[in-house]
Amino acid sequence: MRRILPTTAALAAGFLVLLDLFIQNPYLDLIGWVLTDWAAILAAFALLAGAYNVLASHFRRVGRRQEGWPYSLILILALWVVLVVGILDPSGPQGDLVSWVFRYVQFPLQATFFALLAFYMATAAYRAFQVRRPEALLMLVAGLVVLIGQSPVGAWLGEALPRAAQWVVAVPTTAGVRGVLLGVALGTVATGLRLLMGMDRPYAR
Amino acid sequence: MDVLASLLAGSSLGIPQALMLAFLLLFVPTLLFFRARVRAGKRPFLRPLPAFARLRGLVGLAAESGRALHLSLGTGGVHGTAAAESLAALDLLDAAGRQAAAYGARPLVTTGDPTLLLAAQGVLRGGYEEQGLPGEYDHLSARLVAPEPAAYAAGVMDTVNHTPLAAHLMAGRFGDEYLLMAEAAAHQGLEQVGGAAQPPVLPFVQATAHHPILGEELFAAGAYLRGDPAHVGSLLAQDWMRLLLVVVIVVGIVVKTVLV
Amino acid sequence: MIYCPNCGTANRDGSKFCNECGARLAAPSTGIACPECGTFNPVTRLFCQKCGARLVTVAPEPEPEEPEGVPVTGFSLPSRLLETPPEAEAEGPAAGEEGALIPEWLTGLEPEAAGEEPVQEVPAAPLEEEHLPDWLRELRSGLGAVPEGESVEEAPPEVPAAPPGEGPGWLRELRSGVGAVPEEEAVEEAPPEVPAAPSEEEGVPDWLRKLRASLPPLEEEGEEVPPPAWLTEEGAAYPQVPVFAEPAVGAEGPLPEEAPSPLEAEAPGAAEALPLEIPPWLEGLEEEAAEEVPPPPPPGEQVSPPWLVGPTPEEIRAPGEAAEAVPPPVEAPLEPGRAEAEEEEMLPEWLRVPPPPPAEAVPAARVPEEGEAVPGEIPPWLAPFSPLARGPAAEGEEGTGLLQGISGLVPAVPEVLEVREEKAKGPAPSPVGASEANLFRQVLAEPPPEEPPARPKAKRFPLWGRWLVSLLLLAAVGIPTVWNGVTGRPLLNLRPAVPPAVQALYAAVEQVQPGEAVLVGWDVDPASAGELLPLAEAILGHLMQRGARLFVVSQLPAGPPLAQETLDGLARTQGVYTYGAHYLNLGYLPGDELGLRALSGAGGLAALDRDYVQGKALAQWEAAAGVRGVDDFRLIVVLASDAQQVRRWIEQVGAQHGVPLVAGVSAGALPALQPYHETEPRQLAGLAGGTPGAAAYESLRGVYLAGQSSMEALAGGVLALAFIVIVGNVALLFGLGRQGE
């Protein structure tokens, strides 16, 4: 019973949503929408469990004075401040204080963090484009053509480079990407079918 | 296509739904057939994937060195379009977690989604229970870093830079933040196994991982590591369906180019 | 996990039946039953999964009982008949055979010598006539048939070992004048190196010839000769002593004098009660044995048995000196009054007591100095083996070592010495153990799985290299940005290329009429805002310029506030645009594909019934007038950092309705989405990507905004990256590339 009940619930929900995709029926649409709502609610409760996990791991770090424990303390304090303010503010998450935190703390930090990607990409490119095999030479040439061709420098150098860059992106790159996407789609379908037919029960581990 | 549209005119099925239904009606019996064959004992030849072969060695390395084995499962959850990649990552975690429990290695799992966190905790706990060591499981060995990709990458980089690790494994749904985490691990000199299915991330995986798992190879984790008949059978079914798609594409090209 | 033996499916622990095929799982052979609750657990578990009791006990397993009925072989026992044929014995004695057929005279001897209780005798197995050695067969034929039913108690007395080729000495004696050997007696397996007995006259040593002469002649064949008393049942009263093994190679000469066995102390009564029919050479030994019986050892003290104790140095005679007396190696009743000289004469040379070593061979005692190590005292039983100088050895006589004083020995030639390697004789493996051992052997024999060689681990990128790369990028991007910010004009005035997809996007927006509703899918998060905000501002600004009503919906939780901030900023530049009248923020739409399906379904905007900013119903806003569903929109603009998000809109919304759909995406998502624009029917009416797309769109609009101002910084960054790539390959060419890997 401990195993049959969740398996049955998962299978039933999966089949109903799949039927909703193929059959236009208002009742099926309603059931599908309700199940989607429930999934969102479950995800929210999972977020609570995740918040507990975050607090527990950082509390442990602070308690054991592990390396970087002051940052863990800051994280715990920030989490509690934003949470309490968001709950107590009558406007909720759209209130002034929470909006201020988002606008002037989170957004700049996120944007800055991804700006670091450029520097890491440079160090990765130093290694990744080294021609150690013959096919790597092809990759190097294509990379340089696309890199320069799609930039204003390529347009400044002439029309050949941008056109070559467009062709490289449109033909071989797209073909490779589509091949990968087809394989990924097949894998996704296979995983979904295994779940729908009860062959794979990751939730029962 | 017009013929198909006319056939479907009376039904509620649109052309995309009809094509999808036809695809599923072919996929399901193929999967069941190959699963039955595998259960009957006919094991197919699976080309070696170095990343999965190296996994056991990395767990042993972690056990020998006393350092943790870091597994990063990505920012996707067990719902939505990222579910398949997350489940494949859980297969990898299952194999690594069991071996870690048996060898006495210490796994450290980081996730970017709360639902994936709960699934990862269940998988790890199951591995320890299977080895008869329920007391060895640490519920904080699987952690939620942050539900946002940039914050997730920042947390993983902090873990990689400040925690003694034996190896670094990344598998699941990632975005551009993959490169940040992978480069941090590369700067620490860690051996990396990286797996992603999204095309924009594949160049990062290829450039940084010692043993890359590219694209659909990620979905073969269950077949290679667990040998489950369902997983092996679905792998074979995928191969045959891919062959069918190739035939359809070629026929379509010929029809479009020559006949029309 | 329990794997089904039928289909191989993994089932949870504790499962009794397979979930796939229904086969029974909880077979006794597949698990360990808990001693407390009886639950079957996987064999790999240490503790019960139900009650937590320990499954594997820590108590040591009791030692297996030794099998009974196995004869002792390889030891100096008198011949006994074995039940097993010689072929079985030639393969090597099986486990447990040794020690089973121990005659009473031997079992009775050892415990009495050590002061213990006698061990129980093990019955011997009779042997077939054809399996007997030649000398025993001859003996039998000469002495007559063995009485039936005689048990192992009828052990013959111990006799000194006979020279090789003639069988044991005591049997030779038997042949020369005593009774037959019982059939049931075990036959000692003759050593293979023992040659066949020589002819009667040629191979018989002198001492035996003399012995024979003194004894009554053998009876003719067929005539019954009663066995001596010491061979019959009464012989059981004789205390038994072990007989040493025969020398392997032609041993001749007298053995060192041996101290008599302490068992002689218990024998006098028996000796008196038995009729004496003792060979002459055995007579007189009793007196000496009786004289030399040591007192019983105190309890707890371990004393070497006398037969192990060699002669004292005083007893050892010089070579050539006639033996004064022959001490009996066995305990047998002797004829009293026999002259010692006659005894000595009757004994073979190797049985005679060697002369004591010369006195000068003994080193003078020296008083040890203080702190100096004092040499230890050699125990008496070891004294004969000490390499003391005994004076000039006689010709052919061993001067030192174990065989000192024995003459006629074949000189040891190293080449002929064979080292017999005896195989380890362990207990016979059980079937389970054998199968497990075979499995272990197979596993060891299998080659280890080949692990792929790991790619060379990347060394840490040198710190100076990271600094160099960072400074180069900073300069390439920062200089044009700072210049643009300070001067307000571009550094190089680079005109961006305008791809056809961007032109199509521009054309699609240009077809929007004032007051028409446009649905904006905002999937831009702060992480990708740096790249997508210029493009978003260019497109949304154009829409605002056209006077369109904008409805923004986001499938990212962090999307709505960023969208609101962007729209508010653009509205301020437009002047007349106000929230609620010209644009609405519909907030977060959960569920990815399902949410979009709900949005494009019959319910329409009912899925988003309230706005994000004030939470009021849509019907209360002026901008929402006349808008109920997707079909009421003129254009759908999707702004996303990921191709997957755009694909979701195409599949769930665009395919269901005929509303044109355009997209502004990150530059990395362009390759995956271009087919949607380039193939018929076009599922994307227009497409622009990243900063170059924003710059191209601005150039089409004729404005100079963040897109165009970022182009020079982008160009600088691209050139720096290309330079780094080229430098990396040059470094590899000159062998410096390994520094980074």
Quick structural overview:
With 260 residues, chain B is an alpha/beta fold. Helix content of chain B is 59%, strand content 13%.
Could you characterize what this model shows?
With about 200 residues, chain A is mainly alpha-helical. Chain A has helices at about 5-20, 25-65, 70-90, 95-115, 115-130, 135-150, 150-155, 160-195. Chain A folds into two domains: about 5-115, no CATH class; about 120-195, no CATH class. Helices cover about 80% and strands about 0% of the residues of chain A. In chain A, helix 2 (about 25-65) crosses helix 3 and helix 6 crosses helix 8 (about 160-195). Chain A starts with a helix and ends in a 9-residue tail after the last helix. In chain A, about 25% of the residues are buried. A six-stranded parallel beta sheet of chain B has the order 3-2-1-4-5-6, with helices on both faces. The model of chain B has no long low-confidence stretch (mean pLDDT about 90). Chain B is globular, with a radius of gyration of 21 Å. Among the domains of chain C are: about 1-60, no CATH class; about 465-485 and about 720-740, no CATH class; about 500-710, Rossmann fold (3-Layer(aba) Sandwich). In chain C, about 30% of the residues lie in helices and about 5% in strands. Chain C contains 19 helices and ten strands. Chain C has helices spanning about 85-90, 105-115, 135-145, 170-175, 205-215, 270-275, 285-290, 340-345, 430-445, 465-485, 500-510, 525-545, 560-575, 590-600, 645-655, 670-680, 690-700, 705-710, 710-735; strands at about 1-5, 10, 30-35, 40, 515-525, 550-555, 585-590, 635-640, 660-665, 685-690. A six-stranded parallel beta sheet of chain C has the order 7-6-5-8-9-10, with helices on both faces. In chain C, a hairpin with a 6-residue loop joins strand 1 (about 1-5) and strand 2. The longest helix of chain C has 25 residues, at about 465-485. At the A-B interface, helix 2, helix 4, helix 5 and helix 8 of A face helix 2, helix 4, helix 5, strand 3 and helix 6 of B.
